[in-house]
Design goal:
The protein contains ten helices and twelve strands. It has about 450 residues and is an alpha+beta fold. The two termini are about 35 Å apart.
Length: about 450
C-alpha cells in the first residue's frame, strides 16, 4: 500500500488538513465575490440611472436605453428615494422575478447561503437585488438574470480550486520532505544501528552514539545506547559464566568419581573392629554422601533446560494428594504432611512441572522440621484468587535463617540447611515463571515458614 510508511501517511494527513482549511476558506471567499459582483452591478446601474434622470422630461431613445441596460447587464433599474420609488430604465415586458435579495439588511450567514444557492439552483432565474451605491445614499433596485453571475462564480471557484490544489501540493511536498529529513532519517539511522548491533551484540564499537538534534529522538537514542551497553556487558558475563560453568561441570564430574571411590573405601572402613574407627566411619560416610549429592545436583543444574510447559486446566486435589503420599514415605516420624484443598479448585499448569515444584517445597519444609529435631507439620493449601490460583506450602519449622533469606532463589547460596545447595528453590522459581506466575516467600519466623505459588489463568 502507498500509505505504509510514516512519511507517506504524514503526506496524506497534510493534504487532508489543507483541503479542510481550503474548504472552510472557500465559502466566505465565494460569498464575498458574489457580494462584490452584485455591488458592481449596482454601481453601473446607478450611473445609467443618473444619466437618464439628469435630463428630466426627456424620454431616452430606445437604443440608448437598451445600451445602458446591456452595459449594466440588468433588466430594470429603479431608484428608491424617501417616500418615492422611481423607475429609471426597464426592458420591454420584463420577466417575473423569482428571488429577491436585499443587500442592505442581509447578514454574513444569509449572504453565504445565497452564494451556495447559486450553485445548487439550476436555470437562469430572474433575481431582484436591492442595495446602495458606495457614494450615494439612494437605494437602488435592479433585476437581472442569474446566469452570468453563476458563470462568473464558477470561474472564480475554479480559480480558487486550482490555486488551492497548487498550494496544497506544494505545502504537502515540503512537509513530506521535512518529515523525511527531520524524523524518518534519524529513525532509519536508529533502525540501521539496531540491525548492525544485532549482527554482533558483543562488539562494543557497534553501540549507538546519540547525535540527533531533536530532544525526543536524542532521548530514544540515549535509552537505546544504555540498553545496548547493558546487553553487551550481560552477554560477556554470560560467556564467562558459561565457560566457568563448563569448567565446574568437568571438575564436579571428576570429583564425583573420586568421591564415589572414597565412599566405597569408607564402607569398608566402617566394617573395622576398632572402636575409634567405628565412631568416625559413619560421619565420614555421611560427609562423602553429601559431597557426592552436591556434585550430582551441580551437574543436573548445569544441564537443566526446562521445556516450555504444556498448560492445561487440571484439578489440584489429586495431584497434591499424590505429592503428600510420596513425601510421607520419605519423611521421618516427626513430620506430618497433609493437604487442605477443595475438590473443585483447579489451576492452569503443566502437571509434571507443578508436581516437581510442590515436591521441592514440601521436601524442603520436611527437612527443615526434621533438622530442628522436633515434631511439626507441613500443609499444602490451594484457593482461587482473582484471575488465578494460589498454592501455599506452610510448615511449623524453625523458620529460615537471615543468610538464607538474603540469598533465597540464588543457586548454591540459598540453602537453608547444612549441605544444601538451594537449587531446588531456583528450579521451582524458574518453572513458576515459565507458567507466567511467581514463587515467593510469604512469611518466615519461629512459628514456621510459608511459600506462596501463584499461577494465572492466562499469560
Amino acid at each position: 500500500m502507498f500509505f505504509n510508511t510514516l512519511s507517506r501517511r504524514f503526506l496524506g494527513l497534510a493534504a487532508i488538513f489543507l483541503v479542510i482549511v481550503e474548504a472552510l476558506f472557500f465559502v466566505p471567499a465565494v460569498s464575498r465575490f458574489r457580494q462584490n459582483y452584485l455591488q458592481n452591478q449596482l454601481e453601473l446601474s446607478q450611473q445609467a440611472a443618473l444619466a437618464v434622470l439628469a435630463t428630466p422630461g426627456d424620454v431616452p431613445a430606445p437604443d440608448l436605453e437598451k445600451q445602458l441596460l446591456d452595459n449594466a447587464q440588468v433588466l430594470t433599474i429603479a431608484l428608491r428615494r424617501p417616500q418615492v420609488r422611481e423607475m429609471a430604465l426597464r426592458v420591454e415586458n420584463p420577466p417575473r422575478v423569482s428571488q429577491t435579495y436585499d443587500l442592505t439588511a442581509a447578514s454574513d450567514l444569509q449572504l453565504a447561503r445565497a452564494a451556495m444557492r447559486v450553485f445548487l439552483v439550476p436555470g437562469n432565474r430572474v433575481i431582484m437585488v436591492i442595495g446602495q451605491a458606495r457614494q450615494s445614499e439612494n437605494v437602488i433596485e435592479i433585476t437581472m438574470y442569474e446566469g452570468p453571475l453563476r458563470a462568473a462564480m464558477v470561474n472564480y471557484a475554479l480559480r480558487i480550486l486550482y490555486t488551492s490544489l497548487a498550494i496544497s501540493i506544494g505545502v504537502a511536498l515540503l512537509m513530506y520532505l521535512a518529515v523525511r529529513w527531520f524524523i524518518v532519517r534519524p529513525v532509519r539511522r536508529v533502525v540501521a544501528n539496531m540491525s548492525h548491533y544485532r549482527a554482533n551484540p558483543e562488539d562494543a564499537g557497534r553501540v549507538i552514539e546519540p547525535r540527533s538534534g531533536a530532544a525526543e529522538l536524542r532521548e530514544a537514542e540515549a535509552a537505546l545506547r544504555d540498553l545496548q551497553i547493558q546487553l553487551t556487558a550481560l552477554l560477556r558475563q554470560k560467556d564467562r559464566l558459561a565457560q566457568l560453568g563448563g569448567a565446574v561441570a568437568k571438575i564436579s564430574h571428576d570429583l564425583r568419581n573420586l568421591l564415589t571411590t572414597a565412599q566405597l573405601l569408607a564402607d569398608r572402613i566402617e566394617m573395622s573392629s576398632d572402636p575409634a574407627v567405628k565412631r568416625s566411619a559413619p560421619k565420614l560416610v555421611n560427609s562423602l554422601s553429601r559431597a557426592i549429592a552436591l556434585c550430582e545436583r551441580t551437574l543436573a543444574f548445569g544441564r537443566a533446560e526446562e521445556p516450555p510447559p504444556t498448560l492445561e486446566t487440571l484439578r489440584l486435589a489429586p495431584l497434591i494428594e499424590e505429592v503428600v503420599h510420596n513425601e510421607c514415605l520419605l519423611a521421618g516420624e516427626k513430620v506430618s504432611i497433609r493437604a487442605s484443598v477443595a475438590p473443585e479448585v483447579s489451576a492452569r499448569a503443566d502437571a509434571d512441572q507443578l508436581f516437581r515444584v510442590l515436591t521441592n517445597l514440601v521436601r524442603n519444609a520436611a527437612q527443615a522440621i526434621d533438622g530442628a529435631g522436633k515434631t511439626g507439620e507441613v500443609v499444602i493449601a490451594a484457593s482461587r484468587e482473582g484471575a488465578g490460583t494460589v498454592i501455599t506450602v506452610a510448615d511449623t519449622g524453625p523458620g529460615l535463617p537471615p543468610k538464607a533469606r538474603e540469598n533465597l532463589f540464588q543457586p548454591f547460596r540459598g540453602g537453608a540447611r547444612q549441605g544444601g545447595s538451594g537449587l531446588g528453590l531456583v528450579i521451582a522459581s524458574e518453572i513458576a515463571k515459565g507458567h507466567g506466575g511467581s514463587l515467593g516467600l510469604a512469611s518466615t519466623g519461629p512459628e514456621g515458614t510459608v511459600f506462596r505459588l501463584y499461577l494465572p489463568d492466562a499469560s
